[in-house]
Amino acid sequence: MKITFYGHAALGIKVGDKHLLVDPFISGNPLAKHIDIDSLKADYILLTHAHGDHVLDVEAIAKRTNAVIVSNAEVAGYYSGKGFEAHPMNHGGSWNFDFGKVKYVNAIHSSSFPDGTYGGNPGGFVIKGERKNIYIAGDTALTIDMKLIAMRTKLDLAILPIGDNFTMDVEDAILASDFVDCDKILGYHYDTFGYIKIDHKEAIQKFFDKGKDLMLLEIGDSIEL
Q1: Nearest-5° angle of CA 128, CA 133, CA 137?
Q2: 22 burial type by CB count under 10 A (0-12 exposed, 13-18 middle, 19+ buried)
Q3: What is d(CA 7, CA 187) in angstroms, rounded to the nearest whole number?
Q4: Close Cβ partners of 161 (under 8 Å, ≥ 6 residues apart)
């Protein structure tokens, strides 16, 4: 499993020969101006919620790739109403796709499209594929529900927001990593706007002091599990 960071909360995940994109907000992110969305492959686009800084490039990419959009029922319905192929999910539900199993899990945030359309309840994803398990938290506060993930799944990686203001901060993300019982963390949802700029060295040190590994990738860089 290969995971590529495209800035903010945008991720590329390659599982076998399948390409997943998560929350593609790229063309509107000045920090990701070197990423060409027309070059990105996508068999599936996973959306944690409907905010513009997570869905900006969905339609352009899905129109070019015919990707299946996977999200909560309201977000999926919004895109299917526009003629895109979508797979609706809801909290606690899972589905076996051709790349692996996806479960839609709880997140505490808000969700509406830029045009004001209701975007359902926000969520995160637990993805199991190639004998690797990852948790993508989405935009969320720290929630005790995260402990439920560790009761069902042994994670190889937790992808957690750390930018504060709109989501968890670093200290809450450390607690979240305890809740999900995973010491290998990929941080995201930071630096894009003034509200969420962080001190990278300080964040990494705080995780290190707790015996954990926080990775802060350069935009376009990848890790493999």
Answers
A1: 100
A2: buried
A3: 11
A4: 9, 137, 138, 139, 140, 167, 168, 173, 187, 188, 189, 190
pLDDT, one tens digit per residue, over 104-118 is 999 999 999 999 999
Percent of the chain residues topping a pLDDT of 70: 100
- pLDDT digits 0-9 by tens, 7-52: 999 999 999 999 999 999 999 999 999 999 999 999 999 999 999 9
User: DSSP class of residue 218?
Assistant: P
| Distance of alpha carbon 53 from alpha carbon 99, whole angstroms | 26
- Ranges assigned E (strand) in 36-91: 44-46, 68-72, 86-89
* The two structure tokens encoding residue 60: 């352009």
Query: Token pair of 184, please?
Result: 């290998």
- What is the arithmetic mean of pLDDT over 160-189? 98
Burial tier of 201 (Cβ tally within 10 Å: 0-12, 13-18, 19+): exposed
